[in-house]
């Protein structure tokens, strides 16, 4: 008998295999709600059985098989007598050959099919994060900076749109790929972002989501080698991932970029990411992911934080703000401005973002740091408290508490 499976091991299987299982069932049955529900039931059964029986030889296969069998049972129970004979023939018929097309990976296929032009881009991204990454509605709402009820309604509307419009789950044709690329890249990047800094839980990083996003990024680069934004996104993820081992202490506490031991950065990933950035620069077709990758390349070239070319970073953020304006871009630009023009200039820029980033903990954390640097500790304490109230990630909360201590 296999050794008992711990809750942590079962949770790791869920995080690693949820997207694969849901993608497999959607492809088989064409029903989003059925796929989600049956995969959830399969994991519930795993929680009941695996602590006693141990992990099966193929946990992913066990989940997919269990979910598929439960889906078949559900369809049989709900079918009319007239339907059952035809359904039984269908379910026991030989498996049809796999559908041919440019996208062969089930999870990447799911992204492209969810990014159908009949859906608004925010709905495309949110729905795919839910199905592929297994993110909760709360996590997705925070990624979009919207209230949870708003995101819940958006997800329901997206599913209803797919059902009512009979949007097929099939491999998109070559001609369809470029038109869906923007939303696909947004999905992959948000999966990576959630993995890089989890919105909830005890750990700062979700390794499974980072690895999955990079895997998908590499597949996209193979699928669409002439798309500079695909290379830009892959470069951005690689350069960010290169710092992972230095982002936390041995106890799992976060370490800010300025305090990281740069000798621990992964030089192979940095070299690969920088090479991709150079390829993008030669194409001279700048896009948001390429510029963000260039910003990270500047950081990766500096031996110390003092050696960082902050003026170049500000210029890159200026360019990014033109191509992809957002309050988060403006917030990160303000952090760079603080290194060039000082904290007072940066604080003025940050305060202008208050109405749009009030619910985001990073806004309050940046503001608190700038206030502390200006000697306005009373206001800094209030800003740190506001940041603490807006994150459920325990590692980030521990960092904020440590940074708050010197200000009283």
UniProtKB/TrEMBL annotation:
<comment type="similarity">
    <text>Belongs to the sigma-70 factor family. ECF subfamily.</text>
</comment>
<dbReference type="InterPro" id="IPR046531">
    <property type="entry name" value="DUF6596"/>
</dbReference>
<dbReference type="Pfam" id="PF04542">
    <property type="entry name" value="Sigma70_r2"/>
</dbReference>
<dbReference type="GO" id="GO:0003677">
    <property type="term" value="F:DNA binding"/>
</dbReference>
<dbReference type="Pfam" id="PF08281">
    <property type="entry name" value="Sigma70_r4_2"/>
</dbReference>
<keyword id="KW-0804">Transcription</keyword>
<keyword id="KW-0805">Transcription regulation</keyword>
<dbReference type="GO" id="GO:0006352">
    <property type="term" value="P:DNA-templated transcription initiation"/>
</dbReference>
<feature type="domain" description="RNA polymerase sigma factor 70 region 4 type 2">
    <location>
        <begin position="111"/>
        <end position="162"/>
    </location>
</feature>
<keyword id="KW-0731">Sigma factor</keyword>
<dbReference type="Pfam" id="PF20239">
    <property type="entry name" value="DUF6596"/>
</dbReference>
<dbReference type="InterPro" id="IPR013324">
    <property type="entry name" value="RNA_pol_sigma_r3/r4-like"/>
</dbReference>
<dbReference type="InterPro" id="IPR036388">
    <property type="entry name" value="WH-like_DNA-bd_sf"/>
</dbReference>
<dbReference type="InterPro" id="IPR013249">
    <property type="entry name" value="RNA_pol_sigma70_r4_t2"/>
</dbReference>
<feature type="domain" description="DUF6596">
    <location>
        <begin position="180"/>
        <end position="280"/>
    </location>
</feature>
<dbReference type="InterPro" id="IPR014284">
    <property type="entry name" value="RNA_pol_sigma-70_dom"/>
</dbReference>
<dbReference type="InterPro" id="IPR007627">
    <property type="entry name" value="RNA_pol_sigma70_r2"/>
</dbReference>
<dbReference type="InterPro" id="IPR013325">
    <property type="entry name" value="RNA_pol_sigma_r2"/>
</dbReference>
<dbReference type="GO" id="GO:0016987">
    <property type="term" value="F:sigma factor activity"/>
</dbReference>
<protein>
    <submittedName>
        <fullName>RNA polymerase ECF family sigma subunit</fullName>
    </submittedName>
</protein>
<feature type="domain" description="RNA polymerase sigma-70 region 2">
    <location>
        <begin position="17"/>
        <end position="79"/>
    </location>
</feature>
């Amino acid at each position: 008998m296999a050794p008992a499976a711990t809750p942590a091991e079962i949770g790791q299987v869920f995080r690693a295999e949820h997207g694969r299982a849901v993608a497999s069932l959607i492809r088989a049955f064409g029903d989003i709600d059925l796929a989600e529900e049956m995969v959830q039931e399969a994991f519930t059964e795993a929680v009941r059985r695996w602590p006693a029986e141990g992990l099966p030889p193929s946990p992913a296969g066990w989940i997919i098989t269990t979910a598929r069998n439960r889906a078949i049972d559900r369809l049989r129970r709900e079918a009319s007598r007239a339907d059952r004979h035809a359904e039984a023939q269908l379910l026991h018929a030989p498996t049809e050959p796999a559908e041919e097309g440019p996208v062969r990976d089930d999870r990447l296929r799911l992204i492209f099919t969810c990014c159908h032009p009949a859906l608004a881009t925010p709905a495309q991204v949110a729905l795919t994060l839910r199905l592929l990454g297994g993110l909760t509605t709360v996590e997705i709402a925070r990624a979009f900076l919207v209230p949870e009820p708003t995101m819940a309604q958006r997800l329901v509307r997206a599913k209803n749109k797919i059902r009512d419009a009979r949007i097929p789950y099939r491999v998109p044709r070559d001609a369809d790929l470029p038109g869906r690329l923007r939303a696909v890249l947004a999905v992959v990047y948000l999966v990576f972002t959630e993995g890089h800094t989890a919105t909830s839980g005890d750990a700062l990083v979700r390794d499974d989501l980072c690895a999955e996003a990079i895997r998908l990024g590499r597949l996209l680069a193979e699928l669409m080698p002439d798309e500079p934004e695909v290379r830009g996104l892959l470069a951005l993820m690689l350069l960010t991932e290169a710092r992972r081992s230095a982002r936390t202490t041995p106890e799992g506490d976060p370490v800010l970029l300025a305090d990281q031991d740069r000798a621990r950065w992964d030089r192979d990933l940095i070299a690969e990411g920088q090479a991709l950035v150079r390829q993008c620069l030669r194409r001279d077709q700048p896009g948001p992911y390429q510029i963000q990758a260039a910003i990270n390349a500047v950081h990766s070239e500096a031996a110390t934080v003092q050696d960082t070319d902050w003026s170049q970073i500000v210029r890159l953020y200026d360019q990014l703000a033109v191509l992809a304006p957002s309050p988060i871009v403006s917030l990160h630009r303000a952090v760079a401005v603080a290194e060039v023009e000082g904290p007072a200039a940066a604080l003025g820029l940050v305060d202008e973002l208050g109405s749009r980033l009030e619910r985001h903990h990073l806004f309050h954390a940046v503001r608190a740091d700038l206030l502390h640097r200006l000697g306005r500790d009373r206001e800094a304490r209030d800003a740190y408290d506001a940041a603490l109230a807006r994150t459920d990630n325990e590692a980030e909360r521990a960092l904020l508490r440590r940074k708050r201590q010197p200000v009283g």
